[in-house]
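ingest -> validate -> predict -> emit
validate: passed (alphabet ok, no gaps, 171 aa)
predict: started
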Amino acid sequence: MGLAIGSSTSGGVSDVLYYNNTMTQISGFGQGQGAHIKMRMRYGGYVKNISWIDNTFYYVNGPAVEINSGYQSGSSWKRICTNSTGDLACTEVDNITIKNMVVHKARSGWHVDCFENAPCTNPHFENITILEEPKTKKPIMKCGNVASGTVVGSDLREIFDESCASLETLP
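emit:
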């Protein structure tokens, strides 16, 4: 599942650095995201101050970057996270950094999808390169429920769709 955090985050995960890793995978074998945060509904907790810096992926059989709320929550999943008594039980996602990432080949685009009642805050994307794009289309970054964040470099901004308007582009 890539260089991943989750899926059970109820106790919280913070201050993790994935630095200078190389991930290889045989084309078409299994699953494999690049930088991956996966959160289940009703678990709560937090994921904060997580960084992927100077990492290389040779083949990503899924999204190069994926922040996935509602991981393995089934077809009834809604983006609002409550526990069995109706109390809020969202995983809070804050201060995620992905910088100097090289992906040689990615199978699909990027996804940042957070809970409606706990939007992600402050993701930072900088100097991310995909050398070989999927044959079907250019990689696209899609966002769901992202309150704020930054993208450094206008060339990276070109792959983000309109759902990522909350991300500020910096030179």
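The longest strand covers residues 92-108.
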